[in-house]
Specification:
The complex is a heterodimer.
Chain A: H1 5-27, H2 30-46, H3 57-85, H4 101-105, H5 107-116, H6 121-132, H7 137-144, H8 148-167
Helix pairs in contact in A: 1-2, 1-3, 2-3, 3-7, 6-8, 7-8
Chain B: H1 2-7, H2 9-24, H3 34-40, H4 45-83, H5 102-107, H6 112-117, E1 124-125, E2 135-136
Antiparallel strand pairs in B: 1-2
Classes of the chains: A mainly alpha, B mainly alpha.
Chain lengths: ~170, ~140
Amino acid sequence: MGMTTEECKEIICQNYKEIYRFTLYLTDDPIAAEDLTQETFISAWTSADTYKAKSSVKTWLHRIAFNKFIDSRRELKRYNMLLDRYEKSRVRTSDGFEPLRKIMADEDLGSLYKAIHTLKEPDYVCIVLHYIQGLSFKEVAKVLCKPVGTVKWQISQAIKRLKDYLID
Amino acid sequence: MSQDRKQNPKKEMSLQMLEEKLRALSNIDVPSMLETKLLAQIPSGQLNVQRHLNYRWFEFWSWGLSAAFAAALALGVILFHHSTLSTSNGFVVDPVEMPFSHSMVKQNNMSYGIMSMLGSEPNFKLSKEPNSGIEKGL
């Protein structure tokens, strides 16, 4: 797929907020989320010719973002191991920007935010993609390379666990 | 199922509320400079198109080379097959020198007239000794 600059701009404007939100929920770190969003789009431009119109651009970008997250986490593990070895002396700090400010201001949403973090990672990612990112079951399945049935089952199990957690 | 819903509306409502609240978690702030940064990182459109074209050309050449290799291989097999043919009398003929089909030579009773009709005169003599190859004609 050969893309013009105008087409790239359009793709960014339509999708960058969603990709940032997705990476923020994956990393829980605004700086890492920003980096991952940038990496996702750079990767999208360099591999634009591999994009096939079988899935939407939104699904394709989510898939790239998820792969970038897995890669970065692998690197982070190595980085943390190094830091532990030489004693953690440097802590990354954000510039005071809090993207989750509105959510944390609401008591119910704040407790729900904490609740979804108690889920196992595969269930958590499914919940984020389906409810927060607004992807359909089919699109979630494409992003995670899983059968649609598995995704539906994971989401139903996650909802059950969330309800139990919130009732307790 | 519907009876369950009627009996326990509170539980059903809580599921709906839970889903709504989960959707409400999408309400986050995005750094104001992010869009500018992303727009600045767009490569020139021609780059992708060029890569696309290069890929197409590579695809074309790889298919072409494969086809040429397959054709050369097939030709080699046919020539090898012909070069080891022997006549029914045990004489060996060289198909490179043979201006007509080897099945005709196999019969070995082809008259000069027939060969003339085919538009070519035989330019070889069959050797008496098996596997000794062909003696070229004068």
